[in-house]
Specification:
The protein has seven helices and eleven strands. The protein is α/β, with parallel strands linked by helices. Strands 5-4-3-6-7-11-10 form a seven-stranded mixed β-sheet. A hairpin with a 2-residue loop joins strand 10 (183-191) and strand 11. InterPro entries: Methyltransf_25, SAM-dependent_MTases_sf.
Length: 202
């Protein structure tokens, strides 16, 4: 079992940066029912939605319960199993691999910092554009103001995981990033300590 899988099952884990800095992962939020701030994302989904890096499936399942067609995607087999256990659909697949419904998704979710997947937000948003309809949106959770755009080498702890690249995007950096990937910011908002934006195709 990897450190990431332990987190999906509710065990405490964190990212260790090459600098020695530590970033705690929101394990309690991953494994809970939809919680503070999640309604911002859920309420914005009015059609077929792809939940990228779905984890244990709290958002995928919540959308399904609302009658919204939703599919979770995660590279962790544990995440996919846990999403299925919630009664929701999920695929064990890399987001950069071929996916069903390419070009026909109404919304893509990048919650819980998943804008950092692959360590290259520009490449990730370019991929999201391929998955969406022309009127589709990316609903993304961001870091608070003042964080900018940051990329770094990290590994999952407490186990000795392999190093990989991750990224963080502050809310003030999303407009420039969107513009460089043929998106524009439709809106941004905060709820409690969490920040969100909706990107639409320019």
């Amino acid at each position: 079992m990897t450190a990431f899988d332990r987190g999906l099952l509710g065990h405490r884990c964190w990212l260790e940066l090459a600098t020695g800095e530590r970033v705690d992962l929101p394990v309690d939020r991953w494994t809970a029912i939809p919680c503070e701030g999640d309604e911002v994302l859920l309420d914005a989904c009015e059609g077929p939605t792809l939940d990228v890096g779905c984890g244990p499936g709290r958002l995928t399942a919540a959308l399904s319960e609302r009658g919204v067609a939703a599919l979770g995607v995660d590279i962790s087999a544990t995440a996919v199993r846990l999403t299925h256990d919630r009664g929701a659909a999920a695929l064990h697949r890399d987001i950069f691999d071929r996916l069903p419904g390419e070009g026909r998704w109404r919304h893509v979710l990048l919650a819980d910092g998943n804008i950092g997947i692959g360590g290259d937000p520009h490449r990730l948003l370019t991929r999201m554009s391929e998955l969406l309809t022309e009127s589709g949106t990316v609903l993304v959770e961001l870091d608070p103001p003042g964080r900018g755009l940051r990329q770094d080498r990290v590994r999952l702890r407490p186990e000795d995981g392999a190093w990989f690249t991750w990224a963080w995007v502050g809310v003030e950096a999303i407009a420039d990033l969107a513009a460089r990937t043929a998106f524009r910011v439709a809106w941004s908002t905060s709820h409690g300590h969490r920040w969100f934006a909706c990107l639409e195709k320019a």
